[in-house]
Design a protein that fits this description.
single chain; about 230 residues; alpha/beta; Rossmann fold; 6-stranded parallel sheet; 9 helices; about 35% helix; elongated
C-alpha cells in the first residue's frame, strides 16, 4: 500500500489554542450582558471559565450568582459564538499545512460550533478542500456517519486517510475502527488526559504540528486489514 493521501484535522486545540476562542467569546458575551444589564462581568466570566473550570454552564453560573434574567444565558451563548475577533493559529500550523497540501488532500472534521467561521478568523479557510462541521449534520464525531460523509467528500478510502486530533476521548476511536491512521497532537486542554483503552489510542503521538510531515509516510499500511465498523443508528 502507498502512503496515505488524505489528512483530516480536528480544529480546536489541534490547529489553534481554543483558549483564545474562549477568551474572545467571553469578552463578546460580557459586552452583551453589560449592554443589557448595565453591569460589567468581564473579569468574573474569565474567572468562572478559567480559574473555576466551569466551561459548561458558564453563563448559568453568572446568572445564579447575580440573579440576572434567565434570558441572558441564550443571548450570551450566541454572543460567545458570534464573536468576530481574529484568532491566531499555533505558530507551526500555517507552514505545516502549506507544506502538506503539496502532497496530500486536506480536510477538517470538527465538533466545534461555527467551524467555518473559526477557519476564516484564523486565516486558514483556503488550506482545506472540505470542512465537515458535525453540528451542521446534526451529529457528532461519535457517529460513524460523520466519517462516512467525510470519506465521500474527498472520495477517499479510510485506510488511505490520517486523522490528526488532540482529544483521546473522542478523536481516535471511530477513525481507528474505520481503519484510518491516527495521530495525537499532545497539547492544549487535554494534553494530560490518557486514553480510556486500546480503542482510544492513536497510532502515533507528536508534541508539535511540525513533527507531522515526518510521521505521515509511516502511516497507513498497518490499517489496511481493519475490520468494518457496524453502522450505528
Amino acid at each position: 500500500m502507498s502512503d496515505p493521501h488524505t489528512v483530516w484535522f480536528d480544529l480546536d486545540d489541534t490547529l489553534y489554542p481554543y483558549a483564545r476562542y474562549a477568551r474572545a467569546g467571553l469578552a463578546a458575551a460580557a459586552d452583551h450582558i453589560e449592554a443589557e444589564t448595565g453591569q460589567g462581568y468581564h473579569d468574573e466570566l474569565l474567572e468562572i471559565y478559567f480559574r473555576d473550570g466551569i466551561t459548561q454552564g458558564t453563563f448559568d453560573e453568572l446568572v445564579d450568582r447575580h440573579d440576572l434574567p434567565g434570558g441572558v444565558v441564550d443571548d450570551a451563548i450566541e454572543a460567545f459564538h458570534s464573536s468576530t475577533t481574529p484568532l491566531e493559529p499555533y505558530a507551526d500550523t500555517e507552514a505545516v499545512l502549506d507544506a502538506l497540501r503539496e502532497e496530500y488532500r486536506l480536510g477538517v472534521i470538527t465538533d466545534g460550533r461555527g467551524g467555518h467561521a473559526k477557519l476564516e478568523r484564523l486565516g486558514l479557510a483556503d488550506r482545506f478542500e472540505t470542512v465537515v462541521v458535525t453540528a451542521e449534520l446534526d451529529r457528532s464525531k461519535a457517529d460513524p456517519r460523520v466519517f462516512e460523509h467525510a470519506f465521500a467528500e474527498l472520495s477517499a478510502a479510510p485506510w488511505s486517510a490520517v486523522y490528526v486530533g488532540d482529544d483521546p476521548r473522542i478523536d481516535f476511536r471511530l477513525p481507528n475502527a474505520f481503519g484510518m491512521s491516527t495521530v495525537r497532537l499532545r497539547r492544549g486542554r487535554y494534553s494530560d488526559l490518557e486514553p480510556a483503552g486500546e480503542r482510544f489510542e492513536p497510532d502515533a503521538e507528536i508534541a508539535t504540528l511540525d513533527e507531522l510531515p515526518a510521521v505521515l509516510p509511516e502511516m497507513g499500511a498497518s490499517k489496511r486489514s481493519a475490520k468494518t465498523i457496524e453502522r450505528e443508528q
